[in-house]
Amino acid sequence: MRFHRSLAAVLLAAGCASAPVAPPAAAGPHFIENDYPAALAEARSTGKLLFVDFWAPWCHSCVSMQAYVFPDPALAKLRDSFVWLEVDTEDPVNSAVLERFPVDVWPTLLVVDPSTQTPIRRWLGSATASELSGRLEAVDRAWKPGGGDPVEKALSQGAALVAAGKRAEAAVAYRSAVAASAKGTPAHAQAVELLIMQLSLTDQPVECVRSARAELPALPPGTSVANVAGGGLDCALALPAEDPDRIAALPMFEAKVTELARDRSVPMLGDDRSGLYQSLVEARREAQDNAGATALAAEWATFLEGEAARAKTPEARAVFDSHRLGAYLALGQPERAVPMLEQSAKDFPRDYNPPARLAVAYLAMKQPAKALAASEVAEKLVYGPRTLRVLLTKAEAEAALGNRAGAEATLAHADELVAGLPDAQRGKWMTAAIASKRKSLLQ
C-alpha cells in the first residue's frame, strides 16, 4: 500500500483500479459475497474465525489480490479453517458492516472473532499468497486455547482499537508488538509495517519517518519491507522541505525504494512493486527533478508493460491498467493508454473503470468531446461513492467544451450524490473536492 498526494489524485480521478475479477479458482477459498450476517452466522455455527476482505472495484491492489493471491494453492490448506467474506465497500448494502468496521485503506483485511464480532487482526494493503498464508496460520494458532504470545496479543489489540475508533492508541499497541518481536522475523516485519501505516494515517509523519528509518535496515525481504520503505518515503515527503528529519531520511528512503523496485528477487506482487515506482516518481517531482521523474516513469511503464504481457488472463492483465495510465500521464504520453483501455472495455463491458480512465486520458490529450462520451458511458455503469470521481471528470469535459450549464448541472448532481450516501461511505474529502472543481471550472 502506498500513501500519495498529487500523482495519487490524478490516479483516483482516473478511477484508479482494474476490472472486477472472476471468482477464485476451486483450489482457493470460497468467499461469501456482501452478506456479513450470513458469514457471521456460519462462523458461529462452525466455530471458525471470520476472514473479511474489504475491497472496491476501483482498487487495483484489491483486484490484484483477487487475481493473484486468493486463487493461489498456498491458501488451499486454509480453505476450511476460516469463513471467507468479501465486502464491496462501494455497495450500499454493506453500509452497516462498514459502520462496524470503518475502512480508510483498500484493501483492508480483517480476521474477526465471531463470538464477539471483535477484529483480532487487521492488515492494510496486499500481501503475497505465502505471506498471507503464514499470517493466517499464526492467527489460527493464537486463537486456539493456550495459543498466542505477546506479539500476537499486541497485534490483536491494535486491530480492536482501530475498530473502536481509537487510532492513536492502536499505534501504541503496534509499537508494543514491534518491541516484543524478534528482529528479522516475519512477525516483527508485520508489526513494523502496521506501525508505520498507523502513524501515517494518524498524521504523525515525524514519528513515522523516525520509526521507519530505525527499523528498515533489519527487515527481511518481502512486502512489509517495501511498505515500510515506501511509507517512510511518503511520510518524509509530507514534512516541510527544511525539516531535519526529512533531510536526513529522504536519501535513505529513496535509495531503498529504488533498490526494492528493481530487485526482482524480493518477493512481492507486481502491483506493489509498481507502487514503489509511483512513490519514486512523486519524490523526483517534489525535488523538481523532472528529468529524473521522467526517466523513472519510463522505467515504470516498461515494468508494467512486462507484467501485463505475462498475465495469464484478461483479469490479471487489467490489474495494471490504472498504474499504466499513471505512468503514461507522468511521461506526458496519455495516448499510449488508449489501446489497453479500449481492450479492457471490450473484455469487461459492465465495468466502469475502463471508460472512466479513458475519459482522463482523453482530457490529457486535449480531446474533451471523447472524454465526455467516455464519462457518460462510465456514469451509466458506476455505482456508490466512486460515482463522484466520474462526475468530476464529466464536469471537466463539459467545461472544456464550453458547456458551463452542463458542468454546473453535473456538479449539482455530485452534491446530491454525496448528500445521499450512507455515513459510512461518505468521505470528508468529497464536499471539498466538489467545491474545488466548481471553483476551478466555473469561477
Describe this protein's structure.
The chain has 443 residues and is an alpha/beta fold. The protein has two domains: 6-332, 3-Layer(aba) Sandwich (Glutaredoxin); 340-443, Alpha Horseshoe (Serine Threonine Protein Phosphatase 5, Tetratricopeptide repeat), CATH 1.25.40.10. Helices cover 62% and strands 7% of the residues. It has a five-stranded mixed sheet, sandwiched between helices. The two termini are 36 Å apart. The model is unreliable at 1-25 (pLDDT under 50).
Question: What is the class of the largest domain in the CATH system?
Answer: Alpha Beta
Instruction: List how many beta strands DSSP finds.
Output: 5
Q: Which fold does the CATH topology of the largest domain refer to?
A: Glutaredoxin
Question: Helical residue percent?
Answer: 55-70%
The assigned structural class equals alpha/beta
Search tags:
alpha/beta; Glutaredoxin; Serine Threonine Protein Phosphatase 5, Tetratricopeptide repeat; 5-stranded mixed beta sheet
Summarize the structure.
With 443 residues, this protein is an alpha/beta fold.
